[in-house]
Protein backbone atom coordinates (compact mmCIF):
# COMPACT_ATOMS: atom_id res chain seq x y z
CA UNK A 1 0.00 0.00 0.00
CA UNK A 2 2.87 2.38 0.81
CA UNK A 3 4.35 1.80 -2.64
CA UNK A 4 1.00 2.57 -4.28
CA UNK A 5 0.53 5.78 -2.25
CA UNK A 6 4.02 6.93 -3.22
CA UNK A 7 3.22 6.38 -6.90
CA UNK A 8 -0.08 8.27 -6.59
CA UNK A 9 1.69 11.21 -4.94
CA UNK A 10 4.29 11.21 -7.71
CA UNK A 11 1.61 11.25 -10.41
CA UNK A 12 -0.29 14.06 -8.69
CA UNK A 13 2.86 16.19 -8.72
CA UNK A 14 3.48 15.24 -12.36
CA UNK A 15 -0.10 16.22 -13.23
CA UNK A 16 0.40 19.66 -11.63
CA UNK A 17 3.63 20.22 -13.57
CA UNK A 18 2.09 19.04 -16.84
CA UNK A 19 -1.01 21.22 -16.44
CA UNK A 20 1.18 24.22 -15.65
CA UNK A 21 3.12 23.63 -18.86
CA UNK A 22 -0.24 23.19 -20.56
CA UNK A 23 -1.05 26.75 -19.49
CA UNK A 24 2.31 28.27 -20.42
CA UNK A 25 3.12 26.69 -23.80
CA UNK A 26 0.10 27.95 -25.81
CA UNK A 27 0.80 31.49 -24.58
CA UNK A 28 4.38 31.30 -25.86
CA UNK A 29 3.07 30.99 -29.42
CA UNK A 30 3.28 34.40 -31.13
CA UNK A 31 -0.05 36.12 -31.77
CA UNK A 32 -3.54 35.25 -30.52
CA UNK A 33 -6.80 33.93 -32.02
CA UNK A 34 -8.13 37.42 -32.76
CA UNK A 35 -5.00 38.37 -34.70
CA UNK A 36 -5.27 35.08 -36.57
CA UNK A 37 -8.86 35.94 -37.49
CA UNK A 38 -7.83 39.44 -38.58
CA UNK A 39 -5.21 37.98 -40.90
CA UNK A 40 -7.91 35.92 -42.62
CA UNK A 41 -9.73 39.13 -43.45
CA UNK A 42 -6.43 40.69 -44.56
CA UNK A 43 -6.72 43.37 -41.86
CA UNK A 44 -10.00 44.76 -43.18
CA UNK A 45 -11.81 44.96 -39.84
CA UNK A 46 -13.09 47.88 -37.84
CA UNK A 47 -11.09 48.59 -34.63
CA UNK A 48 -14.30 48.47 -32.58
CA UNK A 49 -15.06 45.05 -34.04
CA UNK A 50 -11.59 43.87 -33.01
CA UNK A 51 -12.15 44.99 -29.41
CA UNK A 52 -15.54 43.28 -29.45
CA UNK A 53 -13.87 40.01 -30.51
CA UNK A 54 -11.46 40.20 -27.57
CA UNK A 55 -14.41 40.68 -25.19
CA UNK A 56 -16.42 37.92 -26.90
CA UNK A 57 -13.59 35.39 -26.57
CA UNK A 58 -12.89 36.40 -22.97
CA UNK A 59 -9.30 37.51 -23.67
CA UNK A 60 -8.23 40.16 -21.17
CA UNK A 61 -5.16 41.86 -22.63
CA UNK A 62 -4.63 43.82 -19.41
CA UNK A 63 -4.58 40.81 -17.07
CA UNK A 64 -1.21 39.61 -15.86
CA UNK A 65 0.06 36.08 -16.41
CA UNK A 66 -0.48 35.19 -12.74
CA UNK A 67 -4.12 36.29 -12.82
CA UNK A 68 -4.65 34.21 -15.95
CA UNK A 69 -2.99 31.23 -14.23
CA UNK A 70 -5.28 31.52 -11.18
CA UNK A 71 -8.35 31.80 -13.44
CA UNK A 72 -7.12 28.77 -15.40
CA UNK A 73 -7.00 26.56 -12.29
CA UNK A 74 -10.33 27.90 -11.10
CA UNK A 75 -11.92 26.87 -14.39
CA UNK A 76 -10.34 23.40 -14.17
CA UNK A 77 -11.76 22.79 -10.69
CA UNK A 78 -15.18 23.83 -11.96
CA UNK A 79 -14.85 21.48 -14.93
CA UNK A 80 -15.02 24.44 -17.29
CA UNK A 81 -12.57 24.13 -20.19
CA UNK A 82 -13.79 27.33 -21.80
CA UNK A 83 -15.24 28.07 -25.21
CA UNK A 84 -13.57 27.05 -28.44
CA UNK A 85 -12.54 30.02 -30.59
CA UNK A 86 -12.78 28.08 -33.84
CA UNK A 87 -16.16 26.50 -32.99
CA UNK A 88 -17.62 29.42 -31.04
CA UNK A 89 -19.88 29.30 -29.05
CA UNK A 90 -19.43 25.53 -28.53
CA UNK A 91 -17.72 24.54 -25.24
CA UNK A 92 -14.31 22.89 -25.52
CA UNK A 93 -15.61 19.75 -23.77
CA UNK A 94 -18.30 19.37 -26.43
CA UNK A 95 -15.83 19.83 -29.31
CA UNK A 96 -13.41 17.30 -27.79
CA UNK A 97 -16.25 14.89 -27.08
CA UNK A 98 -17.20 14.73 -30.75
CA UNK A 99 -13.63 13.85 -31.81
CA UNK A 100 -12.22 11.74 -29.00
CA UNK A 101 -14.36 8.67 -29.74
CA UNK A 102 -13.10 8.55 -33.33
CA UNK A 103 -9.54 8.32 -32.03
CA UNK A 104 -10.32 5.95 -29.15
CA UNK A 105 -12.06 3.45 -31.44
CA UNK A 106 -9.48 3.65 -34.23
CA UNK A 107 -6.25 3.74 -32.23
CA UNK A 108 -7.60 1.74 -29.28
CA UNK A 109 -8.65 -1.26 -31.34
CA UNK A 110 -5.48 -1.23 -33.46
CA UNK A 111 -3.25 -0.86 -30.38
CA UNK A 112 -4.90 -3.80 -28.61
CA UNK A 113 -4.73 -5.95 -31.76
CA UNK A 114 -1.11 -5.07 -32.47
CA UNK A 115 -0.12 -5.82 -28.86
CA UNK A 116 -1.90 -9.19 -28.85
CA UNK A 117 -0.60 -10.25 -32.27
CA UNK A 118 2.91 -8.90 -31.74
CA UNK A 119 3.29 -10.40 -28.27
CA UNK A 120 2.05 -13.80 -29.42
CA UNK A 121 4.36 -13.90 -32.45
CA UNK A 122 7.23 -12.57 -30.31
CA UNK A 123 6.80 -15.43 -27.83
CA UNK A 124 6.91 -17.99 -30.65
CA UNK A 125 9.88 -16.32 -32.35
CA UNK A 126 11.87 -16.11 -29.11
CA UNK A 127 11.05 -19.60 -27.88
CA UNK A 128 11.52 -21.33 -31.24
CA UNK A 129 14.65 -19.63 -32.49
CA UNK A 130 15.61 -20.59 -36.01
CA UNK A 131 12.01 -21.33 -37.08
CA UNK A 132 10.23 -19.62 -39.96
CA UNK A 133 8.72 -17.06 -37.57
CA UNK A 134 12.19 -16.08 -36.40
CA UNK A 135 13.14 -15.63 -40.05
CA UNK A 136 10.61 -12.79 -40.37
CA UNK A 137 12.65 -10.53 -38.09
CA UNK A 138 14.38 -8.56 -40.89
CA UNK A 139 10.98 -7.62 -42.32
CA UNK A 140 9.62 -6.62 -38.90
CA UNK A 141 12.76 -4.58 -38.19
CA UNK A 142 12.23 -2.65 -41.42
CA UNK A 143 8.51 -2.07 -40.78
CA UNK A 144 9.08 -0.91 -37.20
CA UNK A 145 11.45 1.80 -38.45
CA UNK A 146 9.00 3.15 -41.06
CA UNK A 147 6.97 6.18 -39.86
CA UNK A 148 3.18 5.83 -39.67
CA UNK A 149 2.48 8.73 -42.00
CA UNK A 150 4.81 7.39 -44.73
CA UNK A 151 2.98 4.07 -44.73
CA UNK A 152 -0.26 6.05 -44.89
CA UNK A 153 0.89 7.93 -47.98
CA UNK A 154 1.96 4.65 -49.62
CA UNK A 155 -1.38 3.04 -48.75
CA UNK A 156 -3.28 5.97 -50.30
CA UNK A 157 -1.15 5.84 -53.45
CA UNK A 158 -1.54 2.07 -53.90
CA UNK A 159 -4.99 1.25 -52.54
CA UNK A 160 -7.10 4.43 -52.70
CA UNK A 161 -8.34 6.33 -55.71
CA UNK A 162 -11.32 6.59 -58.06
CA UNK A 163 -13.44 3.44 -57.94
CA UNK A 164 -11.46 1.98 -55.01
CA UNK A 165 -13.17 0.37 -52.03
CA UNK A 166 -10.86 2.26 -49.67
CA UNK A 167 -11.61 5.99 -49.18
CA UNK A 168 -8.54 8.21 -49.01
CA UNK A 169 -9.85 10.77 -46.50
CA UNK A 170 -12.59 11.58 -44.01
CA UNK A 171 -14.37 9.53 -41.37
CA UNK A 172 -17.59 8.82 -43.29
CA UNK A 173 -19.37 9.63 -46.53
CA UNK A 174 -20.33 13.29 -46.96
CA UNK A 175 -24.02 13.86 -46.39
CA UNK A 176 -24.40 11.21 -43.72
CA UNK A 177 -25.37 12.17 -40.19
CA UNK A 178 -23.40 10.40 -37.40
CA UNK A 179 -25.77 7.87 -35.88
CA UNK A 180 -25.89 4.19 -34.95
CA UNK A 181 -27.73 3.02 -38.07
CA UNK A 182 -27.17 0.78 -41.09
CA UNK A 183 -25.88 3.66 -43.21
CA UNK A 184 -23.39 5.45 -40.99
CA UNK A 185 -21.66 2.53 -39.23
CA UNK A 186 -20.57 0.67 -42.43
CA UNK A 187 -19.34 3.97 -43.90
CA UNK A 188 -17.33 4.77 -40.74
CA UNK A 189 -15.78 1.27 -40.73
CA UNK A 190 -14.89 1.55 -44.41
CA UNK A 191 -13.16 4.92 -43.88
CA UNK A 192 -11.18 3.59 -40.90
CA UNK A 193 -9.68 0.56 -42.69
CA UNK A 194 -6.68 2.28 -44.29
CA UNK A 195 -5.68 4.29 -41.16
CA UNK A 196 -6.09 1.17 -39.01
CA UNK A 197 -4.03 -0.93 -41.43
CA UNK A 198 -1.27 1.70 -41.40
CA UNK A 199 -1.08 1.84 -37.60
CA UNK A 200 -1.34 -1.94 -37.19
CA UNK A 201 1.47 -2.77 -39.63
CA UNK A 202 3.88 -0.30 -38.03
CA UNK A 203 3.14 -1.01 -34.38
CA UNK A 204 2.88 -4.81 -34.44
CA UNK A 205 6.50 -5.07 -35.63
CA UNK A 206 7.78 -3.29 -32.54
CA UNK A 207 5.90 -5.61 -30.19
CA UNK A 208 7.30 -8.67 -32.01
CA UNK A 209 10.88 -7.43 -31.71
CA UNK A 210 10.68 -6.45 -28.04
CA UNK A 211 8.92 -9.64 -26.96
CA UNK A 212 11.24 -11.86 -28.99
CA UNK A 213 14.35 -10.26 -27.46
CA UNK A 214 12.97 -10.58 -23.92
CA UNK A 215 12.08 -14.25 -24.53
CA UNK A 216 15.62 -14.97 -25.69
CA UNK A 217 17.00 -13.31 -22.56
CA UNK A 218 14.61 -15.06 -20.17
CA UNK A 219 15.15 -18.47 -21.82
CA UNK A 220 18.78 -18.39 -20.64
CA UNK A 221 17.84 -17.87 -16.95
CA UNK A 222 18.47 -20.56 -14.35
CA UNK A 223 14.81 -20.98 -13.35
CA UNK A 224 13.98 -22.00 -16.94
CA UNK A 225 16.68 -24.69 -16.75
CA UNK A 226 15.25 -25.87 -13.42
CA UNK A 227 11.74 -26.01 -14.92
CA UNK A 228 13.03 -28.20 -17.74
CA UNK A 229 14.88 -30.40 -15.22
CA UNK A 230 11.62 -30.94 -13.32
CA UNK A 231 10.16 -32.45 -16.46
CA UNK A 232 7.44 -29.82 -16.85
CA UNK A 233 5.66 -29.74 -20.22
CA UNK A 234 7.26 -27.51 -22.85
CA UNK A 235 4.14 -25.40 -23.23
CA UNK A 236 3.90 -24.72 -19.49
CA UNK A 237 7.55 -23.68 -19.30
CA UNK A 238 7.15 -21.38 -22.29
CA UNK A 239 3.98 -19.67 -21.10
CA UNK A 240 4.00 -19.83 -17.28
CA UNK A 241 7.73 -19.35 -16.70
CA UNK A 242 9.31 -17.64 -19.72
CA UNK A 243 6.51 -15.61 -21.27
CA UNK A 244 5.12 -14.34 -17.95
CA UNK A 245 8.46 -12.81 -16.96
CA UNK A 246 9.34 -11.63 -20.45
CA UNK A 247 5.97 -9.86 -20.63
CA UNK A 248 6.75 -7.38 -17.84
CA UNK A 249 8.52 -4.72 -19.99
CA UNK A 250 5.83 -5.05 -22.65
CA UNK A 251 3.13 -4.40 -20.06
CA UNK A 252 4.67 -1.01 -19.30
CA UNK A 253 4.95 -0.25 -23.01
CA UNK A 254 1.35 -1.29 -23.60
CA UNK A 255 0.12 0.91 -20.74
CA UNK A 256 1.94 3.89 -22.24
CA UNK A 257 0.38 3.08 -25.59
CA UNK A 258 -3.06 3.06 -23.96
CA UNK A 259 -2.36 6.51 -22.58
CA UNK A 260 -1.42 7.84 -25.99
CA UNK A 261 -4.56 6.34 -27.56
CA UNK A 262 -6.42 9.54 -26.69
CA UNK A 263 -3.80 11.66 -28.41
CA UNK A 264 -4.06 9.46 -31.43
CA UNK A 265 -1.52 9.22 -34.19
CA UNK A 266 -1.40 12.84 -35.24
CA UNK A 267 0.29 12.50 -38.61
CA UNK A 268 -1.87 9.54 -39.65
CA UNK A 269 -5.02 11.51 -38.87
CA UNK A 270 -3.67 14.47 -40.83
CA UNK A 271 -2.76 12.30 -43.83
CA UNK A 272 -6.23 10.73 -43.92
CA UNK A 273 -8.08 13.86 -42.70
CA UNK A 274 -9.57 11.55 -40.07
CA UNK A 275 -11.85 13.43 -37.62
CA UNK A 276 -9.97 12.35 -34.50
CA UNK A 277 -8.39 14.22 -31.62
CA UNK A 278 -5.00 14.48 -33.30
CA UNK A 279 -6.45 16.18 -36.37
CA UNK A 280 -8.47 18.46 -34.09
CA UNK A 281 -5.26 19.44 -32.27
CA UNK A 282 -3.59 20.23 -35.60
CA UNK A 283 -6.42 22.60 -36.53
CA UNK A 284 -6.45 24.17 -33.04
CA UNK A 285 -2.73 24.98 -33.26
CA UNK A 286 -3.21 26.56 -36.69
CA UNK A 287 -6.06 28.72 -35.39
CA UNK A 288 -4.28 29.53 -32.07
CA UNK A 289 -7.33 28.23 -30.23
CA UNK A 290 -5.86 28.32 -26.68
CA UNK A 291 -8.82 26.79 -24.80
CA UNK A 292 -9.13 23.92 -27.29
CA UNK A 293 -5.38 23.23 -27.24
CA UNK A 294 -5.35 23.26 -23.44
CA UNK A 295 -8.38 20.98 -23.30
CA UNK A 296 -6.81 18.44 -25.66
CA UNK A 297 -3.48 18.52 -23.79
CA UNK A 298 -5.38 18.07 -20.52
CA UNK A 299 -7.18 14.97 -21.81
CA UNK A 300 -3.94 13.50 -23.18
CA UNK A 301 -2.02 14.26 -19.96
CA UNK A 302 -4.61 12.69 -17.68
CA UNK A 303 -4.86 9.65 -19.96
CA UNK A 304 -1.10 9.07 -19.94
CA UNK A 305 -0.83 9.48 -16.16
CA UNK A 306 -3.73 7.10 -15.52
CA UNK A 307 -2.20 4.58 -17.92
CA UNK A 308 1.13 4.78 -16.08
CA UNK A 309 -0.62 4.30 -12.75
CA UNK A 310 -2.41 1.28 -14.20
CA UNK A 311 0.93 -0.08 -15.42
CA UNK A 312 2.40 0.26 -11.92
CA UNK A 313 -0.54 -1.62 -10.41
CA UNK A 314 -0.36 -4.41 -13.00
CA UNK A 315 3.43 -4.59 -12.63
CA UNK A 316 3.00 -4.89 -8.87
CA UNK A 317 0.57 -7.78 -9.34
CA UNK A 318 2.78 -9.60 -11.85
CA UNK A 319 6.13 -9.07 -10.11
CA UNK A 320 6.20 -9.83 -6.36
CA UNK A 321 9.64 -8.15 -6.11
CA UNK A 322 7.97 -4.79 -6.69
CA UNK A 323 5.66 -5.30 -3.71
CA UNK A 324 8.57 -6.37 -1.52
CA UNK A 325 10.68 -3.35 -2.45
CA UNK A 326 7.67 -1.06 -2.01
Features:
single chain, 326 residues, mainly alpha, MetI-like fold, 14 helices, globular, transmembrane
Give me the secondary-structure topology.
Blueprint: H1 2-28, H2 33-40, H3 47-56, H4 65-77, H5 92-127, H6 137-144, H7 148-159, H8 184-219, H9 222-229, H10 234-259, H11 266-271, H12 277-287, H13 290-318, H14 320-325
Helix pairs in contact: 1-13, 5-8, 5-10, 5-13, 6-8, 7-8, 8-10, 9-10, 10-13, 12-13
Task: Write structural notes for this entry.
The protein has 14 helices and no strands. α1 (2-28) packs antiparallel against α13 (290-318) and α5 runs antiparallel to α10. The mean pLDDT is 76. It folds into two domains: 22-77, no CATH class; 92-325, MetI-like fold (Orthogonal Bundle). The protein is mainly α and 326 residues long. The protein is 72% helix and 0% strand. It is globular and about 85 Å long. The protein has helices spanning 2-28, 33-40, 47-56, 65-77, 92-127, 137-144, 148-159, 184-219, 222-229, 234-259, 266-271, 277-287, 290-318, 320-325.
Return the CATH class of the largest domain: Mainly Alpha
Helix content: over 70%
How many β-strand runs? 0
Helix-strand pattern = HHHHHHHHHHHHHH
Low-confidence region ranges:
none
The domain count comes to: 2
Q: Strand percentage, roughly?
A: under 5%
| CATH H-level superfamily title of the largest domain | MetI-like
Q: Quickly give the structural class.
A: mainly alpha
CATH fold label of the largest domain: MetI-like fold
Indicate the overall shape. globular
* Individual helix count: 14
Give the mean pLDDT. Answer: 76
Subcellular location: Cell membrane; Membrane
Keywords: Membrane, Transmembrane, Transmembrane helix, Transport
InterPro entries: MetI-like, MetI-like_sf
Protein name: Peptide ABC transporter permease
